[in-house]
Amino acid sequence: MSDHETTTLTIRRPDDWHLHLRDGDMMKGVLPDTSRDFARAIIMPNLVPPVVTTADAEAYRARILAALPAGDRFAPLMTLYLTEHTEAADVAKGKASGLIHAVKLYPAGATTNSHGGVRDLEKVMPVLETMAEIGLPLCVHGEVTTPEVDIFDREAVFIETVLDPLRRRLPELKVTMEHVTTQDGVDYIKGAAKNLAGSITTHHLIINRNALLVGGIRPHYYCLPVAKREVHRQALRKAATSGDARFFLGTDSAPHVDPLKECACGCAGIYTSINTMSCLAHVFEQEAALPALEAFASRNGPAWYGLPVNEETITLTRRSVPVEYPAKIETGAGPVTVFDPMFPLHWAVEQAHD
């Protein structure tokens, strides 16, 4: 790396360990923003209807690959949506085939298209026991949904009342706490001896709850889990930039068309795929931790999921003139607003190398 105006940083090509691609016209519109920069992504299964079986995942993967822009090299890593009717044998079959890389636990009602999620953990214990035996990770949306719990406390209560008891019962189960948003989550992961890791989103490193609420309700900063207090954002930045192998990038980039965001009951989700690497370079530079960006974006995730690090690299260059990203992208399903970090982005992804 050289001086401030011409700094370049070359890292292994990154992966996204938590991504919503949706389906149909929306998927065709957003997929190129991921496949341009990322080699692989863990694909979320909360479609309508959800991706419940290995056969569902195989068909969804085929649709993703059919929509991939010509020349892009991108591997979708498929997951299954855990329900109280999921069959352990099918999960084991999916893992053995190499198709299924994780199973996703959505507490019923926790987020978009989660109404078919788990209400009684006891009913899915046979599946979880099988996953512990075969080494298949459980990805959790770590929030309780009971109405008496404040929405800003959902993650901490989930850790105490659901996750910790589960991990004590099944200590060999590998668990990914997805989109960690609190100091509580960071501390819990750091305190674990084994089999626990956490993904951190782009936007939770940048916004706190003021972005959503100050000066009016701003629906394009609304996500689940919601952004928390500034003390939690700082804890996430410290964890992400620390080099700790238990933390890695999962953007949780979640596109919704603008009419479904800008309404009386707007959908949760922030679209960051297009500018994530520019945003991350900015954050890591602010934290004087640019050398740690490769660990967070390119190395820690593959190690956790038992995959090799990508052989290709990308180069980020710091430009004197800010990089311009569109305010919206147009998809066949409608316009999608791009995450605005509220500061100029000077880092650009220049190229990929074999």
UniProtKB/TrEMBL annotation:
Binds 2 Zn(2+) ions per subunit. Zn(2+) 1 binds at H18, H20, K104, D252. It comes from the Bacteria. GO terms for cellular component: cytosol. It catalyses: (S)-dihydroorotate + H2O = N-carbamoyl-L-aspartate + H(+). Substrate binds at H20, L21, R22, N46, H141, L224, H256, A268. Keywords: Hydrolase, Metal-binding, Pyrimidine biosynthesis, Zinc. It holds the Pfam family Amidohydro_1. Its EC number is 3.5.2.3. One of its GO terms (molecular function) is zinc ion binding. Its cofactor is Zn(2+). SUPFAM superfamilies: Metallo-dependent hydrolases (SSF51556). GO terms for biological process: 'de novo' pyrimidine nucleobase biosynthetic process; 'de novo' UMP biosynthetic process. InterPro entries: Amidohydro-rel, DHOdimr, Dihydroorotase_CS, Metal_Hydrolase. Residues 16-308 form the Amidohydrolase-related domain. Zn(2+) 2 binds at K104, H141, H179. It is an enzyme of class 3 (hydrolase). The modification N6-carboxylysine is found at K104. The active site is at D252. Pathway: Pyrimidine metabolism; UMP biosynthesis via de novo pathway; (S)-dihydroorotate from bicarbonate: step 3/3. Catalyzes the reversible cyclization of carbamoyl aspartate to dihydroorotate. Homodimer. Belongs to the metallo-dependent hydrolases superfamily. DHOase family. Class II DHOase subfamily. This is Dihydroorotase. It comes from Rhizobium quercicola. The gene is pyrC.
